[in-house]
Amino acid sequence: MLSSVVTRYQFILEHHMERSLVTCAFSGSHQDAIKKGFAAQEKRRQNGDQTWQIPYLTLDPKDIGRNYEAVIRVNSQSGKGGAAWIVQRNLGLDLPKAMQIDFSSVVQNNADHLGRELKAEEIISLLQRHYNVDNCATDDLNVKDYNFDKKSDKVTDVNAIVRLNGKEIALHGKGNGPISSFLNGLSDAFGVKMEVESYAEHSVGQGSTTKAATYVKISCGDKYKWGIGMHESITRASVNSIISAVNSLIKAGALDANKVSSSEHALRKFAQKKASANL
Q1: Is 129 helix (H, G, I), strand (E, B) or coil?
Q2: Long-range contacts, 118-123 (Cβ 8 Å, 24+)
């Protein structure tokens, strides 16, 4: 080994370990650098530059029969970049930096509990269950119907019907857009103030299969939760991300599902809508 020649110290390392870990990164800082390197590499390739330039990877793992998913190994000591890279490679979701930190703690706790590295499919399953991506978890709150009415450039009304533990609740809210109006409607229904602390969005896929992915951080008192929403409609994706975060707040005890009231205004609006549809 070159290291033995340079240091005059005899390193003992099994050959199968050398082969299996040659393109692997365990360090959080290395994983962050590799994640950013792959993003930069993709941009260069779109401009016709095929040069391989990834930090800490002097060769393309595919050239020696390895796949990219095996590059980053995630355990209880891994940083935020490793899990985020796996999510981006598999689902196309580019988690905001603050959300990467939130999710990494979930991943680390799970890896610590199991006492081993987590596989890519386990990390994906954790994300889907923790943030209820595509309704993978059984939740208390779900959306049945909604209608946004833009009154002006600064005012949007919403009337919505949600199901909470099997019971239908009517919401009415006002805000400067769909997100704030829908959340204000939920705040009124629960009788507590919830606020959007952070929001991000991007597209996933191309052409007719393109979806919107939205991320929202919602606070209620001294607690906050992140939510993820995906849908062909950016508005519905935003609604889904709010529902995702509010469900997490319910599970955390920040919201009492037993103290929810319907909006009489919304009930009247939906009654009128139903009557018009039957004419």
Answers
A1: helix
A2: 118/74, 118/75, 120/69, 120/86, 120/89, 120/90, 123/74, 123/83, 123/86, 123/87
Query: Cβ distance 33 to 84 under 8 Å?
Result: no
Summarize the confidence of residues 220-234 as an average pLDDT: 95
Please report which confidence band the pLDDT of residue 134 belongs to, taking 50, 70 and 90 as the band edges. low
According to DSSP, residue 132 is labeled T
For the domain made up of 2-130, give the CATH fold.
Helix Hairpins (1.10.287)
CB–CB of 213/201 below 8 Å? Answer: yes
Lowest mean pLDDT among 75-84, 110-119, 262-271: 75-84
Gap between the Cα atoms of 177 and 155, Å rounded: 7
Helix axes 80-91, 28-46, angle to 10 degrees: 40
Q: What CATH number has the domain spanning 141-272?
A: 3.30.160.270
Mean pLDDT rounded to a whole number for the chain: 82
> CB–CB of 56/73 below 8 Å?
no
Looking up tokens 């103030």 gives 193
The string of pLDDT tens digits covering residues 25-43 is 455 566 667 767 777 777 7
Instruction: For residue 168, give Cα distances in angstroms to 50, 186, 207.
Output: 55, 13, 36
d(CA 101, CA 97): 7
pTM for this predicted structure:
0.75
Listed by start position, the domains of the chain span 2-130, 141-272
